[in-house]
What does this fold into?
Amino acid sequence: MADIVYCEWLKLKRSKIIFIGVLGSFIVPLLVIIKNLTTSLSLYGIYEDAIMFIMLLFGPLIMSVVATYLVSREYTEKTLKTIFVVPIGRRSFLLGKFITLFILVLLFMVLSWFDIIVLSMLCSLFMEVSQLTLLSAIYIFIQMIKGSMLLFTTLTPFVYLSLRAKGTLTPFIIIAAVSLLNVVFSGSQIAGFYPWTASYLLLTGRLEQFGCPTFIGMLILLCVCLSGILASILRFQKEDIV
It folds into this structure.
């Protein structure tokens, strides 16, 4: 499995998708700080605004594109025939994709945390930034790690869509629709039961305020994650690779 993940990393190094992820992790903290420059800045305030945009908009949008790319490139570049010349099982191959996706989501969130801290420290050179302490940075880091896990649970269905469509057009349309619904549902009572907004509410501890018990929200996310993985495996096992 480690060899599969390593091969995936080598393929990603030759593409621009890593650059897109790094750029996406930098944009949100920067925009949040620019928006709040006219007011007093605090580390927690920057984090709360940034995590909202990351979990509801930029994170699902960017990382679902990455999830789609991980699978669709095998079809568009016609590399599946070459891959299965070596003794590798289809299930192992697909699980390697999911592990790679989780690592990329984790890196995306860690980079976002790093950008928040660095930009806050740079701002502190010219103006006061309250709550800028080591303990605050550690707390935000832990929250980002939790956020990466929650974000990953909502991305597995896009792997299945990529396998089903064998391309990027259909998944990209659905990605856009999901991101739009995140904005529409974010302030409604539906938000607690809609997986892509429930992940954000669960991370911030506001899920029950939207009428959804915590265990129900966790169950919804778990079902979405497992259904995406199982559906992808079943679909790929039946795939006719010629």
